[in-house]
Design a protein that fits this description.
alpha+beta; 205 residues; 29% strand; six-stranded antiparallel sheet
């Protein structure tokens, strides 16, 4: 039931619940942070005054290979209320918290990222909802903060690593990553990100 997905860089990016603009602003000559964000970046948002980066067209990354991968996460808007709803007396009676965490995970948004060997080019893919319809979006960016900001669900959201940087099973182009099959019916952003990071051999990045 895996479908082959072909994404284009012109596809509008609207993560679930995102209030950020869909376009990423062009960055002036600010230094690129690359991998400078430590693994203890939990609770950190985008640094003040640092532009989010540049979204690249497909032709601009034709010769770029992505060699490392990670999964980023940030809280969904209203996370506290979502979590509280899982633990009300009626939910507890039917063991809802246990199976809801197994099926849906915590109330966080996850997205898959990959980067080039020089830590300059980044690829981000995420499971999105657009006007009630689910789809998958994949884009290439110049700079780490563009890959971070594309998945944030609201401007002041913190973010962290759900999966740390690790080598890809082999170097891949954006076109390769765009074509990965994924059965997205009845799944969510967390399933999608983890599927790309540690899925079976035919789908793993």
């Amino acid at each position: 039931n895996g479908a082959t997905l072909t994404l284009s860089s012109s596809q509008v990016l609207e993560p679930m619940g995102a209030s950020l603009p869909t376009s990423v602003a062009s960055a002036p000559s600010a230094p690129l942070p690359g991998s400078s964000a430590p693994s203890s970046s939990a609770g950190h948002g985008l640094p003040a005054g640092l532009p989010p980066g540049v979204k690249l067209e497909d032709f601009e990354v034709e010769g770029v290979l992505f060699v490392e991968k990670a999964v980023l996460a940030c809280p969904l808007p209203g996370k506290a209320w979502i979590e509280l709803g899982r633990w009300n007396p009626i939910s507890l009676l039917f063991l809802v918290p246990a199976w809801s965490y197994h099926v849906s995970g915590p109330a966080d948004h996850w997205w898959f990222v990959a980067r080039s060997a020089n830590h300059m080019y980044y690829y981000a893919a995420q499971f999105c909802s657009d006007n009630g319809k689910n789809h998958i979006s994949g884009h290439a960016f110049l700079g780490m903060w563009a890959a971070v900001s594309t998945g944030l669900q609201y401007p002041e959201a913190s973010w962290w690593y759900a999966r740390e940087w690790a080598p890809c099973s082999e170097a891949r182009s954006k076109a390769d990553l765009d074509r990965y099959p994924y059965s997205w019916v009845d799944n969510n952003c967390q399933h999608f990100a983890v599927h790309l990071y540690e899925g079976d051999r035919s789908c793993i990045s």
